[in-house]
Design goal:
TIM Barrel; alpha/beta; single chain; 10 strands; two-stranded antiparallel sheet
């Protein structure tokens, strides 16, 4: 159990850049073996923590013969809490489950946090979550949170023994280390970087104690983001998030989905590839160069978005760790 530390404790104790990665929960119907295929190859690099994302169930609205509209669930993923527990106790590794606004009431969030605390989880990454595919704008669950800062405040309340029900018996203070997302190239919904930093600072002031960035492919974006944060009074660890590009189609989907720019040199290298196998190699080489520069500039952790596959991340880790 000594391995189960808070993220900031790991960073404080380390004398070098640490390694971590993020997992997607498998689709409903797949079992833990699917996760093992992604995790097993990366454990030799002694990850400081493993993030486990959370995805709302996906639904569509169908018009019935009588004219009424019915909501139909079309996709589910196994629970993040269960996956986090399985990873912790199989691999003896720190886990950082995502806690999101979408799909949860405040009461359901509190119940999930109680379960995670019971399991010994020390860290959380708090994000609002994306809108449903069928919706243009994010809609909170009735009785749920609309913004990530409200989740941060609720978790911080539990850390201070403040629960939703004031008369709740046998309450215990949790000890979650709270992480939030940072956007070196601005959140897609923010009007500008200054506004984005203002809200990020509010989340730190509300109790968050580390930041994991959105993916970026130009390290200057990260270095500039860190400088801006420090000038804004944000002094918590800022962990760079990296994703090796892996398909030609990502030249259009990544900028559109994540509001990021791809460097010309990377775009030209990908466009020169004849198939996605060559693209994956270009992605590995680009991420190795990114990683080495980030390590040389004392990034606290390199955090990799695996998207459920780890062969390319393993090659990167072999080259830099």
């Amino acid at each position: 159990m000594d391995n189960f530390l808070q993220v900031n404790e790991h960073i404080h104790k380390a004398d070098k850049t640490l390694f971590s990665f993020e997992l997607l929960p498998p689709l409903k119907g797949q079992n833990f073996e699917h996760i093992q295929q992604a995790v097993d190859p990366l454990m030799e690099f002694n990850p400081a923590f493993v993030n486990v994302t959370y995805h709302q169930e996906e639904f569509v609205y169908k018009t019935l013969a009588n004219g009424l509209i019915e909501r139909k669930t079309v996709r589910k993923r196994p629970g993040t809490v269960g996956i986090a527990a399985a990873l912790m106790y199989r691999y003896q590794v720190n886990v950082v489950p995502h806690i999101i606004c979408g799909g949860f009431t405040r009461e359901e969030t509190e119940n999930a946090l109680i379960d995670l605390h019971f399991l010994g989880v020390k860290n959380l990454l708090v994000v609002r979550g994306d809108p449903q595919a069928s919706m243009k704008q994010f809609q909170p669950e009735p009785g749920g949170h609309a913004h990530a800062i409200d989740l941060v405040k609720q978790i911080n309340d539990l850390n201070n023994r403040i629960y939703l029900e004031e008369e709740l018996l046998n309450v215990t203070a949790t000890d979650f280390c709270i992480g939030v997302a940072g956007y070196p190239e601005k959140h897609i919904e923010a009007p500008n970087l200054e506004s984005d930093l203002k809200y990020l600072k509010m989340k730190i002031d509300a109790g968050a104690s580390f930041i994991v960035t959105q993916m970026f492919f130009d390290n200057r974006k990260y270095f500039d983001f860190v400088k801006r944060c420090r000038a804004f009074g944000i002094d918590v660890p800022i962990i760079p998030g990296l994703k090796p590009i892996s398909s030609i189609g990502q030249l259009s989907t990544l900028p559109q989905t994540f509001n990021i720019d791809l460097p010309d040199e990377l775009v030209k290298a990908v466009q020169a590839c004849s198939d996605n196998k060559q693209v994956r190699q270009v992605g590995v080489e680009w991420a190795i160069a990114q990683s080495k520069e980030l390590m040389a500039n004392h990034a606290p952790v390199l955090h990799f978005y695996t998207m459920g596959r780890s062969d390319n991340v393993k090659k990167i880790a072999e080259a830099v760790f």
